[in-house]
Structure formats: C-alpha cells, structure tokens
C-alpha cells in the first residue's frame, strides 16, 4: 500500500460501529458518504471544488428529525431509488434504553417528496421528512436489495430494506407509495431463503447473476452458522441451501468476483471514439466467490460458490494473528485487472491479499492506531479514481492513489485503445512543455521503486524551518502553528513503540497516523 497517501482525516465526536457508514452514489457520478456515531451525530462528507480549482473537504453535521433524546444509532444505510435523478432514501436503526430498564427501538427512513427529473440531492430536506417504524427487537445489520414484487396484474421491480434483529429473524420493509410510509411484510413471500435463522444474522449479502434470473443470498450468524442460498428469481423458489458451522460469530460476509467491472470512459473520451471495454484478462469473470470473516477463526474465501458451494475453501494466511477480523473490502488497488482483498482487524492492522492465479497470498499490511471498523473503495474526489475510506472508532481516513502511478496507468490504457492512441500522443507532447510541480520528496514517497536514504539525526538536533515551511497547511489534519525549530527527541526502540501507551503520544497532531509496513 505504498502507492497511497493520506488526503484527509476527520474525527468523530463519538465512535460508531461496523454498521455506521453508508455511501451516497449520486446520478451525476459524484459520491459522498454518511457516517453516524452512536450519540446521534450524523455527518455527511463530500469534496467541493474551490474557485482556483482545488479540492476542499467538507464535513457537515445534519440534524435528523424523530430521533429520541438519549437514543443511539445502531446502523445506517442509503440508496438511490432512481437511475436518472437523485431520489435518496436514508435509513437509521435506533435504540434507546429507558430509565426503568426497558428499551425502545425504531427504524427511521428519510426521503424527499414531490421530486422531479431535475432534482438534486438536498440532504437537509431529506433529514426532515421521516417515516418512523417502531420495532419489537434490537436492530443489527441494515441493508437493502432489489426484489420483484408480484402484484395483481404485474410484476414491479423495487428496492426494499432488510434489517436483522435480536429475534433471530431478518425483517423486510417495503414502501406504501400512497401513504408515503413503510411497513413490514412477510419475508417468506419475497425472500424465502431468509425464513428461518438459527441465531442473530450479523451480516447479509445478496447478488443477482445470470441476467437477474438467479439470486445468491448469504447470511452470517452470531452462532457461527454460514448460510448460502441459490434462488430462481422467476419462480422465487430455492434451488439449494448450503450450511457451514464455524467456531465463533461471523462478523462479515461479502460476495465478489475476481475482476472489476468494465471500463466506462468519460463522455469527453466517448465523443473522441474511445469505446467501453473490459479491462479484465480473467476468463472466469462470471464466477462468484465469498469472503467470510469470523471472530475466532481465520478468514476464509470460498471460490466459485455457485458450482462448488463450500467445497473450495482457502484460508487467508495470518488473518487470525490480529484479533477479530471486523470487515473486508474487495478492490483492485494496484490496477492489475484483478481484485485484492483488504481485511480490517480489531488488532489495528489492515491486511492485503493478492490472487496469484491459484491462491490468495498475503502481499502487504498497514498499521493503524485504532481498530478498523470498515473499509470502502469509492471515488469521493470525483476525479475518476477511487479512494480508500478507512473508518476507525475515532475518525475516517481518506487515502488517495499516488498521482504519478495513476497517470502512468491512464496513459497505458489509452494507448491500448485505437482512438486513445492519438489522445495519449497529444498528452505526451503537452507534457514535454510542462514543468512538474510535484516535489521530489512527494514523488519518492509514492514511488515503490525509489529507496530514499534515511536521515540520521541525533537527540537535540534542530531541523531547518525552510524544509518544514514547504508543507502545505491544507494537507495537515490539524492546523496548528509551526515552531521555528523542531527538536528531535531520542529515537524510540521497537520495544518502546510496542509498549508505549497511546496516552503518552499526545505530541502527535493526529493520533490516528498510519505506520506502513510491507511484506
């Protein structure tokens, strides 16, 4: 992960959990994300462009209606109902413990009304329009999926809410369009594979295949039961169910393919003749695989589950050495056309696994100062390149690819396209007359091929302020005044770093700073 640098970091007022972050995918192609801390604080993060063309991170707290005083936000999720304009629905699962020992639980669903085709996302308006559903159970994982509802004379496609609960059930909530409210409906009619669970469903994942004629549904339970179902969508009948029992709760399940989606060039390149294409060399692109994270045993990957079920299992090396594996992310972070697996652990470590054609190999790791609740790979800067979002109990890190690496990949893919060769040639000519304004220090930090010689400083030495002054204050997480000189303290030994409590590291402006290691 030495091709990443930290673009931004913001702190949370109180910690969240593994269900606390949701992505907002706008129709314009811009992505934002919403994160909820336990104590009612709901934050929307986005990047905006300044007048001089720079990106400015914006963190905005929104005030959602109908959240009882003293309540805690257990889970958050969001989706866009429309393909042509922004019609978002945001769901919050809420729990409140009363003074008499009783508890209240709710599902709040926020949306806009009276929309038109020119509608744009207005998060403040959404936050004030709430449909509140009282629950009789403690909520856990809140997610959504696509279903085909069979009505009297038609079959309608719509997105519905799924919520797992302490009553060992998965609850289905659908919209009543006439009353603009939500109601719970029998899940057996729409998703029969979720009718019976042995314990609390901690994580749900659903994927449609074969041109939406098959549905693969997976749920991981608190008791360690892993359930996978293959469903015929046209008849809504279960083709087969398969179960496996692991030692300990299943913290997350994730369905994925070995390769990313097809490349969709921007409109400016489409007008020049650059066509959409598949960047994927994998001939088995339709295969579906499954990651299963567990609290007590190593994370496992089940390959080609539609044909092999749970038979072809691979254990991820060293995934049980850093406490509980809380989350998994699938992303092509090295631009080789194959997905990598990133595991976030409670033991303050991110593990990276690469597919070598036969097996998943541990290829790198990155230390964090806190446990990792979730990892997402999404474009939040709106530059066409995804960033890594790393959620921890104290805040969210946004890691950005090295621009030089992205530039090289961009040109190489243009040259592989007939229309793109002419564009790439013009870019090469233009670059010959441009002066690279990226500092040597920054380029060396992002490049894995350059080994920067270490600077040996003794305790008490002073660092010239000229070097410090070259740092942009906008790149700093905490904008604090810089001293004229910086005194270099006696270096810590490895034992000091391992056993030094976090409370003794108050001098660092960001206690979430990363320390990177590579295998």
Automatic annotation (TrEMBL):
Q: State any GO CC term.
A: lamellipodium
Q: Which domain of life is it from?
A: Eukaryota
A GO MF label: actin filament binding
Q: Check the record and name the InterPro entries matching this protein.
A: Integrin_alpha_N, Kptn
* One GO-annotated biological process of the protein: cellular response to amino acid starvation
The name under which this protein is listed is Uncharacterized protein
State the organism named in the record: Cuerna arida
